[in-house]
Specification:
alpha+beta; 3 helices; two-stranded antiparallel sheet; 4-stranded mixed beta sheet; 124 residues
């Protein structure tokens, strides 16, 4: 094994967490709810979406849009959609008392179709 470097220079500049950014993800809820009990899949799916968002965007303050909540619960507590498409956007926090400067908003993308090579048509 190679010896660990000592006294290396740290990069100066802005952190990726401090940027305001929006990204689109497809989250597989089917994997995270596998093996849950009879009446638990929808709440578990919501918790897993929040965990995924915190990991990907890096902001502990997560807000979920009502359309995303309705999309997960659309077919009931047991029949959660296998995949769900979301926009994760990091925004400045308007609450002055909050310890976090940024918060994250998870928004549902209504529908998506593959129209051709690498082109998506979003239908709302």
């Amino acid at each position: 094994m190679a010896p660990a470097k000592k006294g290396g220079k740290k990069k100066e500049g802005c952190s990726a967490i401090k940027e305001v950014v929006t990204r689109e993800y497809t989250i597989s809820t089917h994997k995270c709810i596998h093996g849950t009990s009879f009446k638990k899949p929808a709440p578990w799916a919501l918790k897993e979406i929040l965990k995924f968002a915190m990991k990907e965007i890096g902001t502990p303050d997560v807000h979920m849009d009502t359309r995303l909540n309705k999309a997960v619960w659309a077919k009931g507590i047991r029949n959660v959609p296998h995949c769900i498409r979301v926009w994760l956007s990091r925004k400045p926090n308007e609450d002055e008392n909050s310890p976090n400067r940024l918060h994250m908003l998870a928004t549902y993308v209504a529908a998506f179709k593959n129209v051709g090579e690498n082109k998506l048509l979003i239908v709302e």
